Automatic annotation (TrEMBL), chains A, B:
UniProt xrefs under SUPFAM superfamilies: cAMP-binding domain-like, Winged helix' DNA-binding domain
InterPro entries xref list: cNMP-bd_dom, cNMP-bd_dom_sf, Env_Response_Regulators, HTH_CRP, RmlC-like_jellyroll, Tscrpt_reg_HTH_Crp-type_CS, WH-like_DNA-bd_sf, WH_DNA-bd_sf
Gene Ontology terms: cellular component: cytosol
One example GO MF annotation: DNA-binding transcription factor activity
Residue span(s) of domain HTH crp-type: 151-233
Official protein name in the record: CRP/FNR family transcriptional regulator, anaerobic regulatory protein
Length: 242, 242
DNA sequence: CGAAGGGTTGAGGCGGTTCAAAGCCGGTGG
DNA sequence: CCACCGGCTTTGAACCGCCTCAACCCTTCG
């Protein structure tokens, strides 16, 4: 079945490699960051801790060492859009101007490496890594623009869940483990509000879509943020990407 | 009035400098590209010409020398999302994997510089420029995510139009030229379909919003793609950003 | 003049939001 | 151990903004 799907896929849907830099799993990884050098400092934030606010002077560049971070922007009336979700190995806080263009908050307890802008400029290794991360970041943002601009609520939630299923859904999709079973457990570490703000929806819509998927037996919920996908292939087809 | 608005602006709305790398004007600029070296080739595309398709092998990196280019992605059922609009000085076709993650089409007659990936790797100058462009690209994509995820149709169209008004709307907004008049003429060089696909709307909605703005005398239309903004400050307030 | 290809306008429907109420669950204190 | 509280989540009902579908208009070009 996955082979068949690959054959049918038009060029445009090939995996372009954007996922290779950043992990599928925001958590649980033991990433050995490129920034773990002398000149870098470390800092641990609790879950839902603020790393910096939009508009703060951009003095440091950060790398997620362990945990997960979201970047978001606010409109003056309080509307929020979460623009990126980052995991181990991802960089953030790389500024075009003098200040950060987004706020950064942790989702889970998170260890970050920090390095000053000046020191980052000086290191070729870091520059290289930065470029690589930026490129994959851009491609992820392209995907997210498609999601926000053109996908239905069901497709958005399905795409979101698929993000956290390892080795599935991309060009290199490994297909179901066995003939009879195609399950996977994903842990979100995000509140409904955070998910909604990432997907451009409301809390209620996210909740309704998840309930609907439960009703259709695509997923079951072990805890509120721990979801068992009963049929990965089925969920994948709900993303709109295939 | 503009000074007053700046004072009221919370930190979060400061211009973060994302616009500095790329021009406000996709057209009419005589940008002397960093790629205009020996090893680069040039190519001119007519308006609405295809530079490459999503999924094509990513052999070259491009720079817009003159004209404008849009990058878009398609879903298999034909839904399209334009993810970026580029002008002189902007780079595109920088791949994370082996293939392009978007398609690239010109909006107007466009001159591009091309350079092979290998040659790009070799030049520090190009690497530097590439990094700078990527960073501003990321910030523009952040803004666009907010637009797609959280803004109303009116706010989207207003934001879109403000993009093409020079020196207005950002942190460095110069304010109205005179006490009595606050006009500006923008030329879109895009069909309604392209605008709609960029803003995550339908043709009809774009058309209706523009008609509504005409009715409210915020804009007048000199030609279908040539719009006179009668009240820049007024339009700016419709963007939702202030 | 007629055809073709955008663009505009109108009517109706639907998906997602809004507002409101109830449910669930973990934590705290009696 | 259970009652209570607060925060998050779920569910329901009504509404509304944008989409869909269809007709019409305008401009361009043969």
């Amino acid at each position: 079945m996955p082979e068949e799907r690959i054959v049918r896929m038009p060029k445009a849907e090939f995996d372009t490699g954007a996922a290779r830099c950043r992990s599928n799993f925001p958590i649980e990884s033991e990433f050995k960051g490129i920034m773990s050098s002398d000149q870098s400092r470390h800092k641990t934030f609790p879950a839902h801790g603020v790393v910096f606010f939009e508009g703060d002077p951009a003095n440091n560049i950060y790398e997620v060492a362990d945990g997960s971070v979201m970047l978001y922007k606010l409109l003056p009336d309080g509307r929020r859009q979460v623009v990126e979700i980052l995991g181990p190995g991802d960089l953030f806080g790389v500024p075009a101007g003098e200040v950060y263009d987004t706020s950064a908050e942790t989702l889970t307890e998170t260890l970050v490496h920090m390095i000053s802008r000046k020191d980052a400029e000086g290191s070729d290794e870091i520059q290289q890594h930065m470029k690589k991360c930026l490129i994959s970041q851009v491609q992820n943002l392209h995907d997210h623009a498609v999601l926000l601009g053109r996908k239905s609520a069901h497709e958005r939630v399905a795409s979101f869940l698929m993000r956290f299923v390892p080795n599935r859904g991309g060009f290199a999709c490994s297909g179901p483990q066995s003939e009879t079973e195609d399950e996977s457990v994903v842990t979100l570490y995000m509140t409904r509000q955070e998910i909604a703000d990432y997907l451009g929806l409301t809390i209620e819509t996210v909740s309704r879509v998840l309930s609907d998927m439960k009703r259709r037996k695509v997923i079951t919920m072990e805890k509120q943020d721990r979801i068992r996908v009963m049929n990965v292939c089925g969920l994948c087809h709900l993303t709109g990407k295939f």
